[in-house]
């Protein structure tokens, strides 16, 4: 094993041995989100920024963590205490030739979509080049794992200890769904998987957090109103 693969292996085993994982599977219709990204994609490119869907997920997770602080916490096993975090550092799992790395968007609550998009791109390049600092991969609040970009759907992501939750982002596909008017239409359905540490987070809390996440992703104007 390479040093990075050894570290990943140790972290995954530790997470599964430490936290009783539960995963929620859900989906949300994201036609409006796709239209919003399409509208501003060229504006971003004019600023040398690659606008993907990930910045929207980062912003949405910040809003979710603000309303559900249990998801922005860690468990101090030695002292049997819950440690609540007062910052919002959103990790983005990055697949590289050397293995999986998770740089954080530090203090994402104070950044706009373009700034987040640029930071994701910069962090990804650093990960590929082997130039990420340890400080850029520590102190996370929650992690996003995106397999939708390579065709994946629902899955069971492993929590990035000492965090207590991880969001799995799957593919967007055309599927029938019932809209707000009760009509069966073809929508753009986004697959979501939320794994959480059942020692700290109850299923009902996790689903309420998922419901808010879905609401924000379904309505990007509401998402931007959240800041």
From TrEMBL:
The EC code for this enzyme is 2.3.1.12
Q: Where is the signal peptide?
A: none
Q: Identify a single GO molecular function assigned to this protein.
A: dihydrolipoyllysine-residue acetyltransferase activity
What range(s) does the 2-oxoacid dehydrogenase acyltransferase catalytic domain occupy? 1-225
Residues crossing the lipid bilayer are none
List required co-factors.
(R)-lipoate
Q: What Pfam family is a match for this entry?
A: 2-oxoacid_dh
Q: Which UniProt keywords apply?
A: Acyltransferase, Lipoyl, Transferase
Q: Return the InterPro entries for the record.
A: 2-oxoacid_DH_actylTfrase, 2-oxoacid_DH_E2_comp, CAT-like_dom_sf
Gene Ontology cellular-component terms listed: cytoplasm
Keyword hit for Acyltransferase? yes
Q: What class of enzyme is it?
A: transferase
Q: Which PANTHER family match?
A: DIHYDROLIPOAMIDE ACETYLTRANSFERASE COMPONENT OF PYRUVATE DEHYDROGENASE COMPLEX, LIPOAMIDE ACYLTRANSFERASE COMPONENT OF BRANCHED-CHAIN ALPHA-KETO ACID DEHYDROGENASE COMPLEX, MITOCHONDRIAL
Q: Which family does it belong to?
A: Belongs to the 2-oxoacid dehydrogenase family.
* Identification of the protein by name: Dihydrolipoyllysine-residue acetyltransferase
Task: List the source organism.
Answer: Lactiplantibacillus plantarum subsp. plantarum
């Amino acid at each position: 094993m390479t040093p990075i693969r050894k570290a990943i292996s140790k972290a995954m085993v530790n997470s599964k041995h430490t936290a009783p994982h539960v995963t929620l599977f859900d989906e949300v219709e994201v036609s409006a989100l796709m239209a919003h990204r399409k509208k501003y994609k060229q504006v971003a490119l004019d600023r040398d920024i690659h606008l993907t869907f990930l910045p929207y997920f980062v912003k949405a997770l910040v809003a979710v963590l603000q309303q559900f602080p249990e998801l922005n916490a860690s468990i101090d096993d030695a002292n049997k205490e819950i440690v609540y975090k007062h910052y919002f550092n959103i990790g983005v799992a990055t697949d590289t030739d050397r293995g999986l790395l998770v740089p954080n968007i530090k203090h994402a609550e104070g950044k706009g979509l373009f700034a987040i998009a640029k930071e994701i791109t910069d962090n990804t390049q650093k990960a590929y080049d082997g130039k990420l600092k340890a400080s850029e991969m520590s102190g996370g609040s929650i992690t996003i794992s995106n397999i939708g970009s390579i065709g994946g759907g629902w899955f069971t992501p492993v929590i990035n200890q000492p965090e207590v939750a991880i969001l799995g982002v799957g593919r967007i596909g055309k599927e029938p769904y019932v809209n707000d008017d009760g009509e069966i239409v073809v929508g753009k359905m986004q697959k979501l998987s939320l794994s959480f540490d059942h020692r700290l987070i109850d299923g009902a809390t996790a689903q309420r957090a998922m419901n808010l996440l879905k609401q924000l992703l379904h309505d990007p104007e509401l998402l931007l109103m959240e800041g």
